[in-house]
């Protein structure tokens, strides 16, 4: 007969109060189960399990162990009211005790001497009225601890935590149950099923949380694999997909913490910060479809290789033709001195012409109409081809060479041939060398820009859960401009979220300061901020976020971690703020 029934028979008047007490415990157990299933923070979850178990049993202390991958019980949380001990969980104080081994590392024998490991091994609940009188388990460590602290460990309740599959994933151990007067008592038969039920709920909650965390880690790892693959695809942008998330998260965190009225209504939950984190890593995932040579195009004629070598060979042919003509004319009895002077002049001309073409290939400065005219004049020179240009080609290229004249054929030094035009690219030499700025043609720039469209399309096809539904918007808007002239959707500032606007700033700042671009030198901090300030004045980037970027020192914090020492220069940031009140604040500080 249990104690509750005995109490009812001896004192019928107490029946209603006992029933009410038990009903209250059951109600608390149900509420706790609901709370445990809703808790998403691992430390808070474990702490809640232990503290509620202590409360339900009025225990003085308790320990929660979790099984590790090596087969040991790790101390996760330790609490003791009388000794004022609180370690693990949300306390910030790690538990210093080593894990309890379920098996002897030397013999491999199961460890049934310790009550916690025995409960885990045997999958059984163990109650002990007085540890000092227990004969089945070794409490020498407990007695030693008591001797050093003046504590008296007496009653124990040790319960295994079993998951869905019946596997033990941890152990809940309570110590020194207390009666209504606070005296140490035993853990009664009535309380054991309650704590066992709590342990079952706790195990399920822990298992679910571990499963969710494992899925998050898998998703994040997969996303980072994609980002690293994109960076590895181009040695010239090797760290872009890693560095942009760093700047983005720093800036958004600053906005979240800011007291500036501009961000008074901006707050992110833990889920939204996670969504931002994933979006930042995925912002360039569409580049998996961008041809490698376009991403890496460091000169105007570069494709899989730099075609300037073909053009240089033609100049070599023209020089050799000039030399042959010189020798023939000499052999025919011409004036050697005059012929030599003419040949030397032609060699100098070819050298100067090639130097101009080679310089044009670099795309390092604006290439205006006058230079294009000279390029065409140089390219109009002819040379004779004696070999068939249609043999040895892939089928796709050979179909574009149907109208090529057979050798010997006269060809221009620089040409835009029909076979150089495909569905996506125009590889014409004059066309590429005539690029006004940079090294990309209009078609190549469109392909580069289209990686945003591909990014949005890829992310929209994912079955994203509710808390990640904004991921495509955040990841796909970093080339939009506040005035609506950006791409791909021409969004205006009001149509973009704060995280999306922040990523646009991060993408620009990383590109300006990056030291791994083949077509430019890395810019200093002052140069980069000046350029971004001009973009801010042109309504390309968000003014409030740019001010925050400067005022909170986000740019400096990033610079100390990622920029070269010679890039970090001292300069006054106050002229670059958007708002005068912000300038006044900065000057006051």
Summarize the structure.
The protein has 589 residues and is of the alpha+beta class. 50% of the residues lie in helices and 9% in strands.
Features of the shown structure:
disordered C terminus, single chain, eight-stranded antiparallel sheet, alpha+beta, 3 domains, 21 helices, 50% helix, 9% strand, disordered N terminus, two-stranded antiparallel sheet, Beta-Lactamase, Hypothetical protein af1432, 589 residues
Describe the structure.
This protein has 589 residues and is of the alpha+beta class. It has three domains: 3-212, 2-Layer Sandwich (Beta-Lactamase); 234-288 and 444-588, Orthogonal Bundle (Hypothetical protein af1432), CATH 1.10.3210.10; 308-438, no CATH class. Helix content is 50%, strand content 9%. It has 21 helices and ten strands. Strands 1, 2, 3, 4, 5, 6, 7 and 8 form an eight-stranded antiparallel beta sheet that branches. The protein has a two-stranded antiparallel ribbon with strand order 9-10. Mean pLDDT is 87; it is low at 1-14 and 580-589.
Number of helices: 21
Radius of gyration from CA coordinates: 38 Å
How would you sum up the global shape?
elongated
The largest sheet, given as strand count, sense and whether it forms a barrel, is: 8 strands, antiparallel
Q: Provide the helix percentage.
A: 40-55%
What is the arithmetic mean of pLDDT?
87
């Amino acid at each position: 007969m249990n104690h509750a029934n005995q109490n009812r028979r001896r004192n019928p008047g107490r029946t209603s109060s006992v029933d009410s007490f038990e009903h209250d415990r059951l109600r608390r157990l149900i509420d706790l189960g609901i709370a445990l299933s809703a808790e998403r923070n691992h430390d808070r979850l474990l702490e809640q399990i232990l503290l509620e178990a202590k409360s339900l049993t009025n225990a003085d202390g308790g320990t929660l162990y979790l099984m590790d991958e090596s087969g040991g019980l790790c101390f996760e949380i330790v609490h003791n009211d009388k000794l004022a001990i609180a370690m693990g969980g949300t306390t910030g104080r790690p538990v210093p005790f080593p894990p309890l081994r379920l098996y002897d590392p030397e013999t491999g024998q199961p460890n049934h001497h310790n009550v916690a490991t025995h409960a885990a091994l045997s999958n059984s609940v163990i109650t002990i009225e007085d540890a000092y009188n227990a004969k089945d388990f070794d409490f020498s460590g407990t007695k030693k601890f008591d001797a050093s602290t003046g504590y008296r460990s007496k009653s124990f309740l040790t319960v295994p935590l079993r998951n869905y599959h019946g596997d033990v994933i941890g152990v809940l151990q309570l110590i020194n149950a207390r009666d209504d007067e606070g005296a140490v008592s035993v853990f009664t038969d009535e309380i054991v099923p309650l704590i066992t039920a709590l342990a079952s709920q706790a195990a399920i909650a822990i298992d679910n949380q571990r499963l969710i965390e494992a899925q998050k880690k898998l998703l994040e790892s997969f996303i980072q694999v994609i980002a690293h693959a994109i960076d590895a695809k181009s040695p010239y942008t090797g760290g872009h997909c890693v560095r942009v998330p760093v700047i983005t998260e720093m800036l958004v965190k600053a906005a979240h913490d800011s007291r500036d009225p501009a961000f008074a209504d901006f707050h992110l939950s833990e889920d939204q910060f996670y969504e931002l984190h994933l979006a930042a890593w995925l912002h360039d995932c569409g580049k998996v479809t961008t041809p490698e040579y376009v991403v890496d195009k460091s000169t105007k004629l570069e494709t899989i290789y730099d075609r300037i070598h073909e053009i240089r060979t033609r100049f070599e042919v023209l020089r050799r033709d000039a030399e042959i003509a010189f020798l023939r004319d000499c052999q025919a009895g011409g004036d050697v001195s005059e012929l030599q002077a003419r040949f030397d002049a032609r060699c100098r001309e070819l050298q100067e012409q090639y130097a101009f073409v080679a310089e044009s290939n670099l795309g390092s400065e604006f290439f205006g109409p006058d230079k294009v005219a000279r390029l065409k004049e140089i390219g109009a020179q002819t040379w004779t081809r004696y070999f068939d240009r249609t043999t040895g080609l892939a089928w796709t290229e050979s179909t574009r060479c149907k109208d090529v004249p057979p050798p010997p054929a006269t060809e221009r030094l620089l040409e835009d041939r029909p076979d150089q035009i495909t569905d996506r690219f125009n590889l014409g030499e004059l066309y590429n060398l005539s690029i006004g700025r940079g090294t990309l043609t209009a078609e190549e720039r469109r392909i580069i820009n289209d990686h945003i469209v591909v990014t949005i399309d890829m992310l929209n096809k994912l079955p994203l859960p509710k808390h990640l539904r904004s991921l495509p918007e955040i990841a796909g808007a970093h080339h939009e401009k506040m005035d609506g002239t950006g791409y791909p959707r021409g969004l205006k500032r009001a149509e973009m979220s704060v995280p999306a606007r922040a990523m646009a700033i991060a993408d620009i700042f990383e590109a300006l300061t990056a030291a791994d671009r083949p077509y430019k030198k890395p810019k200093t901090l002052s140069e980069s901020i000046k350029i971004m300030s001009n973009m801010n004045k042109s309504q390309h980037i968000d003014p409030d976020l740019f001010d925050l970027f400067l005022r909170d020192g986000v740019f400096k914090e990033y610079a100390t971690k990622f920029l070269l020492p010679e890039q970090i220069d001292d300069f006054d940031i106050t002229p670059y703020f958007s708002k005068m009140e912000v300038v006044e604040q900065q000057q006051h500080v």
